[in-house]
Every structure is written in C-alpha cells, then in structure tokens.
Amino acid sequence: VLREHRGDGHVAALVSAGVGPLEAHVLTAAAGRTPAASLREHRGWTDQEWSATGVTAARHRPGLRAEVEAATDRAAAGPWDALGTDGTSRLAELLRPLAAAIADGGGVPYPNLMGVPRPEPAG
Asked: How many domains does the chain have?
C-alpha cells in the first residue's frame, strides 16, 4: 500500500511538472536508471513513439528529474512520518518474511522496472 501511495505521489509530481507518461519513462532511461529497451518492451511503446518523445524530453530543463523526485518524496512522507523511526523499523521487521517469500517465489523479478531491491533475508 505504501508503495502505491508513493507511486500516486510520483504521478502527481510528474503531472504538475507537465511530464506525460511516455516522456517520464524517456527521462528515466536518459538518467540511466532503467534500460530504455526494457521500458519500451514492458510498456509496449514503439521505437517511433519513443524517439518522438525523446526529442521532447531532451528539451526539459536540467534538474527536472530531481525536482520531481523531491516532490514525490514529500508526497510520500506522511505515512512514514506518522509511523516514526521505531514504527518504520517494526513494520520492516514484520514484512521482511512476506517480502522474502514473494521474492523467493518469483513474484517480483530482480532487477525490476520499479527499482525495488531484493529484500534482505529475515532474521
């Protein structure tokens, strides 16, 4: 749920910055965070669509990605602030076995397009 909460904040930050869906992924690839081919394949965009948007993405001002990420972090902070340090640690402790089971069962590929790291082993 918290991952989805962050994702919603990220979409809001992108929209506020005037960045569309395909353009957001072009910027991500341009920043070296995810291979462009993986993004194109996963999302079903053609090379032509990608190239056309890439021209637009190249025109964005420097620092745009950092601004969007900072806005995303601010939007996502509420639940974590409410939990506090101890609550966040406890939540991680409780979820670690579940996350490991999902990872071990192949429920999330690693590496993945979400940038989610493989969970540390429990205990």
From this structure: 1
| Cα pseudo-dihedral 106, 76, 58, 27, rounded to 10 | 0
User: Where in the sequence is the domain holding 71, given as residue range(s)?
Assistant: 2-82
CA distance 119 to 99: 6
Domain annotation covers residue 113 = no
Peptide bond just before 117 cis, omega within 30 deg? no
Is residue 121 assigned to a domain?
Answer: no
Interacting residues of 12 by C-beta distance below 8 A, sequence separation 6+? 71, 75
Whole-structure pTM value: 0.74
pLDDT, tens digit (0-9, with 9 covering 90-100), for 49-81: 888 887 666 677 778 888 999 999 999 999 999
d(CA 109, CA 90): 25
